[in-house]
# Entry
Amino acid sequence: MEYVKEVFAQYDRQCIRVYQAYNADIAREAVALQTFGEHFNTNRMTWIKPSFLWFMYRSNWGTKKNQECILALDIYREKFNELLTKAVLTSPDSSSYTGAQWEKAFDETTVYCQWDPDRSINGNAIHRAAIQLGIKGSTLRDFLDTSIHHIEDLTPLVRKWNEQRKNGKLTSKSLPTEKIYPLQDKTIRHRLNMK
# Structure
C-alpha cells in the first residue's frame, strides 16, 4: 500500500514545529540557551520530526532511555525549506535517481530524508507517511546558529497526555493540530518521492 507522502506539521507564517527527545542535561541547556549547548554533540547526525504522533511512537511517549525530555523546536520556514532542498532519501528511489546518481548524492549531502508510516494515538500505522530529516556537518552547525526561533520543553504535557492515553481518555483535540505543509517545488517533490 502506498502511503500519502506530504509533510504534515504544525506551522504558522513564520515557523514550522519539529520535535526531538534528549536526556535532561541536553534538554535543560537547550531551553535555557534557546539553542543547543556543550552537552549536545555536533559531530553526530541529529534528526528532526514534524509529526507529533510519529515522534511519540518513536520515543515511546518520552520513556525511552536518553529520550525522556521532549522538545518542540519552532524553526524558521525559510530554513526548513533550505533543508528540504538539500535532502536526499536514505534509500534509493528508482523514479528519482539511478543507483549511481543516488550514491553520489547520498555521499555528498548533509541532509537526509526518511519516510516512515505515521501513527495514531495508540501507535497504529495510518495511511500516510511521516517525514524525518537528518542533519549533520556544516548544515547542522548552521541550523543551530540560524534556524531556531524558539525551543519549548513539552515533557510535562507529554507525561500528562500519555497518562490520559493509557486510560483511554486522550483525544486528538488535545494534541497539536497538524496540516499539510505547503511544498510546491516540483524538483523537491520529485527528489523526495512525494506524489
